[in-house]
Amino acid sequence: MGQSVSDLPSRLLRNLTAWRNAKAWRVAFSGGLDSTVLLHLLAHLAKHHSLPALSAIHIHHGLQAAADAWPAHCQSVCDALGVPLHVMRVTVQPGASLERAAREARYAAFASLTEAGDLFLTGQHRDDQAETLLFRLMRGAGVRGLSAMPAQRPLGQGVLLRPLLDVTRTELEAYARAHQLRWIEDPSNEDRQFSRNYLRHQVLPLLTARWPQAQASMARSAAHLREAQGLLDELAQLDLAQAVTPSEFSWLGLPSLELAPLTNLSAARQRNALSHWLEPLTRLPDTDHWSGWNDLCGAASDASPVWRLADGELHRSAGRVWWLSGGWLRAPAVSVEWPDPSTPLRLANNGRVMFSGQTPVGPLRIGYRQGGELMHLAGRGHRDLKRLLNERAVPGFVRGRLPLLFRGTELLAVANLPGLDGQGPDGWKLHWQPTDEDQGLR
User: Fold this and answer.
1) What average pLDDT does the structure give for the chain?
2) Is 32 annotated as a binding residue?
3) Residue 332 phi, psi dihedral angles, 5° rounding
4) What values do phi and psi take at 345, rounded to 5?
5) Does 408 carry a binding-site annotation?
6) Strands in 68-127 per DSSP E
7) Which of 72, 123, 328, 330 is 20 to 30 A distant from 170 in Cα terms?
8) pLDDT category, 65, cuts 50, 70, 90?
9) Cα–Cα–Cα angle for 202, 206, 209, nearest 5°?
10) Is residue 438 a part of any domain in this protein?
11) Do 346 and 295 share a structural domain?
12) Residues 253-272: pLDDT tens digits?
């Protein structure tokens, strides 16, 4: 790279210029080489520059006995630098990939600690970027995955920044030796069973022996791919603008898209637009799983197809696709009494209902459609509820959880549906607030 260890502080400060007015700088501090150098650099920069409040966060996964000593080591380093340390224990969920499960637990903890106006800093460097690119290449990743690690992205209520992505591990080691820093060597980093370790110890040394600039070249390729992904994101936004149309059921509070503008696009543009829309909602499907989208679009017009994804479901109904997650995937209780209609009634797995206007005389209960219900309408007599829902094009997934107001066996009202939700403009109306949850946003 042709730059010396003495350049590191100025290079780091340059990468942090845009964040000098952040509320706080929080550093992910494992105690390893990368985060030790990053924390040391920041602590010493803070002595000579006006910087935001600096603190460190150590995540204790509890996956190996050696890790029990690491919080004490991290505390001693932070005490010497005058940096406050927060140690947080996390539970790693068992699964096929321990690497991935530990990472997800770690970043969930980071997100929970990152407040509005905070900058969260991690120590990944250029060698890590090359590993990430190779790792994702071996998994058959697309443009988004091969973009590798972005220099910054949203995290919690703040922003995650990786300010050392243009620095090599060799430079970090040289800095650590020059300043006589002590760091933890995680024994698991030598375990070649882990894919990243295999790449680090077996593959990358062979590549750099043949092509000394291999890691710099891979980092440059990742940057090109990030630019390409940016163009694909712009195209997705243009395509989605045609599909993000108003719905008469916007009160459901669910993300939805009009289907026709999407199906008019080429298959590749459909996947690109939908991936962009789904990305904040769920882990994206792999290539093989995209057949679920084709099945959803190709199902018969009178069908209600569902595409199940990692963190929720995509439903097709009423000419739109709808994203359902959380409480929407849990069945509501069959029936519940409403002893005091003057106060809102909370429904299990289904939000709450309330009245406006004079409440009807009881005893009242809230139930759900079982089939065969009839409702008396002024001037129309008794009408089948299924037909009434069809007339209003109520999405199929809503029908089984629309709160129905009964007095005895008499169906008095269907929440939120004009003409069915109460007794005239001067009477009462039944209102349903479907959920109190944030709809699936990760």
Assistant:
1) 88
2) yes
3) -75, 160
4) -110, 120
5) no
6) 85-89, 118-121
7) 72
8) low
9) 145
10) no
11) no
12) 999 999 999 999 999 999 99
What was the pLDDT predicted at 438? 43
- Between 103-107, 121-125, 323-327, 436-440, the lowest mean confidence (pLDDT) is in 436-440
The verdict on residue 238 lying in a domain is no
- Does 234 reside within a domain? no
Rounded average pLDDT over 235-256: 93
Task: Give the domain-ending residue among 304, 324, 344.
Answer: 324
Is it the case that residue 305 has pLDDT exceeding 90? Answer: yes
Burial code (b: 16+ CB inside 10 Å, e: under 16) for 301-330 equals eeeebbbebeebbbbbbbebbbbbbbbbee
pLDDT digits (tens, 9 = 90+) for 332-360: 878 899 988 889 999 988 999 999 888 88
Sign (positive or negative) of CA dihedral 163, 169, 170, 172: positive
For 356-400, give the DSSP string: ESSPPPS-EEEE---S--EEEETTTEEEEHHHHHHHTT--HHHHT
C-beta neighbour count of 105 within 10 angstroms: 18
Q: Which domain holds residue 12?
A: 5-227
* Claim to verify: residue 352 and residue 318 sit in the same structural domain: no
- The answer to whether the pTM exceeds 0.70 is yes
Same domain for 285 and 214?
A: no
Total domain count, the chain: 3
Partner residues linked to 385 by β-bridges: none
Q: Examine residue 330 and state whether it is found in any structural domain, yes or no.
A: no
Name residue 159's beta-bridge partners.
Answer: 119, 154
CATH number at residue 155: 3.40.50.620
Same domain, 141 and 192: yes
For residues 118 and 176, membership in a common domain is answered with yes
CB-based contact 398:417 (threshold 8 Å): no
Whether residue 76 is annotated as binding a ligand: the answer is no
Same domain, 362 and 408: yes
Task: Tell whether 30 is in a known binding site.
Answer: yes
Q: How is residue 315 written in tokens?
A: 């439903």
pLDDT value of position 56: 95
Query: What phi and psi values does residue 376 have, to the nearest 5 degrees?
Result: -85, 125
Q: Is 35 annotated as contributing to ligand binding?
A: yes
